[in-house]
């Protein structure tokens, strides 16, 4: 792009000289404009070279220059003459304060010739830029078809803009051009992630400023490109960045669909494992590339959406992206994951922990917390089996996830649910319906019959009372009834049981289990 310094070398500026000593002559000139009015704010867009005979500057030259500076004008050229014979000292001092180029013609010049001459070069330069951008777009497109296409696209962007480039994908490893050590990479990635939804980011440690460009496709964000903007970016830089972003989005989508479809197909053997269609432990381990004698520790998980996909949503894209995000977060916490999709669109995960210590459950909880924070605005619910060491027992692990799902329908609505946290439900789920009903009838029949006949809620009262460790004050508050009403209900319960339930430890335990079983059975 033409600068003020370039233009001063042209033949039509032979009689021109700069009167502001501290002028920044490297300013880019986007257009040439003849201006002889004082109210011009709506006429300017920034980067203009202003030509004037000085008619509008009489008695208000300083204000005139101040407004030009405020509108980011490149420079002011004044033809000295009868209407404006000299440049006032105040105008020069103001121009020097802002390094604003103040130029005078000491002889008569034809403004029309100057505008025509410079505009021809500007238009030619813009045409060359458009041609260069078209060629760059084609290069970017070709690079998407090559191995390590993303890296090659970013290197090309860095080459044409001569600026530092950082690529932070949502679910993959970052790229830095030029390269930085691992510690710096982690620091930058962490700081940018914390600076949520900003357009620019300043690296305080390295004293560098970056523009953030999101990579969006199919209604989802796939990451960001950061480009150094310590030196003001030119139009070409912005257009090159746009084209690189488009090429990266296209490449990420193509690789994403291909890779996820391949992995889901490869992991379909998990269905065979659950259905007990795998003949041997050796065969199952071969699917995971695990040696037969190597120690193995895994869980089965089922991950379900808390609400269905919206009708307008690209269901497959969201499924694939959610799977990719889950796999990436498992990997970040030292856990390998093998994921497939069930018939009811839940995600089945076989997760293999690689660290063999006592913190496996804590890591699993951290994975879930990370999934919650990065869930693409899709709330998830995760049901986890206990730890197994034999892959041929995966069907048992999967049954446990189904048991956990049944329990969650009865209890709370939190995100993660472990089989080992089910307590008494582990035993109750293993009982057949007849045994369960007999147990409930043995210990709760009098109170159930009374509630049915009187349309009362004595069983619920007893449940809350036992849950709150027989605190009458807390129970009355929880039930939102008067204490006297609670006393009457407890007296009636004691009458129905023929004794104080809380006085006999064995009876209390049996009644509490029966209440849980009744919740399960209703």
From TrEMBL:
Pfam families: HTH_30, PucR. Transmembrane segments: none annotated. Signal peptide: none annotated. This is PucR family transcriptional regulator ligand-binding domain-containing protein. Residues 6-122 form the Purine catabolism PurC-like domain. Residues 458-515 form the PucR C-terminal helix-turn-helix domain. The lineage of its organism: Bacteria, Bacillati, Bacillota, Bacilli, Bacillales. It comes from the Bacteria.
């Amino acid at each position: 792009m033409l600068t003020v310094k370039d233009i001063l070398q042209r033949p039509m500026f032979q009689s021109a000289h700069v009167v502001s000593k501290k002028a920044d002559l490297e300013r880019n000139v986007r257009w040439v404009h003849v201006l002889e009015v004082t109210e011009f704010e709506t006429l300017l867009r920034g980067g203009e070279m202003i030509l004037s005979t000085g008619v509008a500057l009489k008695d208000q030259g300083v204000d005139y220059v101040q407004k030009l500076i405020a509108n980011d004008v490149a420079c002011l050229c004044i033809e000295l003459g009868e209407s404006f014979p000299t440049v006032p000292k105040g105008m020069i001092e103001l121009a020097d304060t802002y390094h604003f180029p103040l130029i005078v013609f000491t002889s008569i010049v034809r403004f029309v010739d100057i505008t025509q001459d410079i505009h021809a070069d500007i238009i030619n330069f813009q045409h060359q830029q458009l041609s260069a951008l078209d060629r760059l777009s084609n290069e970017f497109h070709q690079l998407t078809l090559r191995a390590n296409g993303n890296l090659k696209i970013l290197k090309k962007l860095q080459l044409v803009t001569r600026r530092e480039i950082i690529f932070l994908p949502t679910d993959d490893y970052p790229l830095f051009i030029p390269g930085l050590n691992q510690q710096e990479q982690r620091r930058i990635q962490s700081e940018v992630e914390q600076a949520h939804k900003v357009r620019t980011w300043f690296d305080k440690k390295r004293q560098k400023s970056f523009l953030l460009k999101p990579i969006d496709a199919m209604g989802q964000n796939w990451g960001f490109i950061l480009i150094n903007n310590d030196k003001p970016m030119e139009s070409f830089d912005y257009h090159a960045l746009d084209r690189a972003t488009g090429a990266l989005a296209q490449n990420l989508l193509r690789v994403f669909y291909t890779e996820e479809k391949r992995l889901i197909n490869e992991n379909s053997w998990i269905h065979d494992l659950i259905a007990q269609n795998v003949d041997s432990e050796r065969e199952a381990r071969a699917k995971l590339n695990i040696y037969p004698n190597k120690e193995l520790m895994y869980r089965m998980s089922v991950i379900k959406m808390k609400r269905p996909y919206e009708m307008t949503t690209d269901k497959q894209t969201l499924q694939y992206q959610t799977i990719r995000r889950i796999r990436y977060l498992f990997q970040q916490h030292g856990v390998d994951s093998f994921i497939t999709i069930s018939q009811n669109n839940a995600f089945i995960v076989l997760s293999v922990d690689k660290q063999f210590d006592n913190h496996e459950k804590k890591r699993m909880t951290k994975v879930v917390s990370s999934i919650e924070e990065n869930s693409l605005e899709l709330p998830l619910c995760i049901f986890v089996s206990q730890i197994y060491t034999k892959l041929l027992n995966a069907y048992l692990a999967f049954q446990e996830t189904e048991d956990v799902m049944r329990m969650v329908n009865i209890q709370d609505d939190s995100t993660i649910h472990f089989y080992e946290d089910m307590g008494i439900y582990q035993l109750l789920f293993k009982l057949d319906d007849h045994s369960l009903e007999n147990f409930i009838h043995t210990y709760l029949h009098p109170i159930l019959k009374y509630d049915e006949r009187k349309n009362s809620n004595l069983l619920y009262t007893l449940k809350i009372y036992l849950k709150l460790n027989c605190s009458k004050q807390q129970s009355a508050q929880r039930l939102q009834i008067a204490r006297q009403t609670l006393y009457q209900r407890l007296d009636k319960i004691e009458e129905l049981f023929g004794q104080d339930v809380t006085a006999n430890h064995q009876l209390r335990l049996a009644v509490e289990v029966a209440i849980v079983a009744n919740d399960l059975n209703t």
